[in-house]
């Protein structure tokens, strides 16, 4: 097996497996035990540095997403509180919720009726319908969570956002 193949197969098993596999490769390339141990230590350091970098990037991404969500909520609140905002601007979110809710409800009823054989239909591709259903469900849940989330969870989220912003 070639070295890239060993690395690729070892990466699927985690860092410990990678170190073990690299140790086997090192055994074939380096002869002294000191060289082997030094290379293993350097490899562990590099893996740890990579893990720390990945965690830092994930934290930055989460913070950015939380700031975006808070910004969108603030914008929505400003629209609702504004005297100059039109009736349509103030009610767009409600229309979106109702529209997605109706679509979700109709597709749910169709799937339940199809599962109970209450609907006789000509060869319907359920794979496509289930794909559409999962997309609609996700959109409906996002809309519901954003616009109609519970006040308690919103308060907790706001507190978390404030803590993150203070620590940044």
What does this structure look like?
The chain has helices at 3-11, 15-29, 33-81, 87-115, 126-148, 151-167. It is an all-alpha fold. The mean pLDDT is 76. The protein has 6 helices and no strands.
Topology:
Elements: H1 3-11, H2 15-29, H3 33-81, H4 87-115, H5 126-148, H6 151-167
Helix pairs in contact: 1-2, 2-3, 3-6, 4-5
Shape assignment: flat
Q: Which regions have little confidence, pLDDT < 50, spanning 5+ residues?
A: none
Distance between the termini: 48 Å
Decide which structural class fits the backbone: mainly alpha
Number of helices: 6
Q: How many β strands by DSSP? A: 0
Report the major sheet. none
Helical proportion, percent range: over 70%
Radius of gyration: 27 Å
Succession of helices and strands: HHHHHH
Strand content range: under 5%
Please state the average pLDDT score.
76
> What is the number of domains?
2
Summarize the structure.
By secondary structure, the protein is mainly α. Helices cover 85% and strands 0% of the residues.
List keywords for this structure.
168 residues, mainly alpha, 2 domains, flat
